[in-house]
Design a protein that fits this description.
By secondary structure, the chain is mostly helical. The chain has 5 helices and no strands. Helix 1 runs antiparallel to helix 2, helix 1 crosses helix 3 and helix 2 packs antiparallel against helix 5.
Length: about 180
Amino acid sequence: MFRKFASVGVPPAPGMQEGPPSGVPQAPAQQGVPQAPVQQQPGGSITSALALLMAMYMMYQHAHWTSKGPLFYMRHDLFARLYGSVSKDTDPLAEKIVGMVGSEALQISALSGEAAGFLQGLPPGQELQSGLSAEESLQNMLAGLINAAKSGQFSPGVENLLQQLFDSSETRAYLLKQHLA
């Protein structure tokens, strides 16, 4: 399934899983990206959340392009809705990161490398399950970042954005669960 992050530091929000389940590979570490202290949160850094969103966009758009069979139209539309939602979440997060720590944190080679690491090993034909796993990973990551924001490590605006991203992810997870039912 989708790669998950290990937790470090602050425990995750109540009800959220701490770290990856046993046997789940760890995402590769970012190289060359400056890491401000506020970025080391459960599940990874805020730039890792951006890389995960980038990976999810690619995964959902690819599933949209390659949908086929008797459920083609339904899945084609679902994945278009999912990649559209992820696209709307990605830009505000990137802009907040630049505002917090500067554009140096958004080195394309590091972000794209980390995004590619998330996508490695995705099983073909398991787009719904992989999407749900990705949403759960994102929610775990965001829960840790939200906890850090509540303890004053981020501005109220960043906390608000993180809450909005979590809400969007919950909506996408709901849609995926409905298609898996």
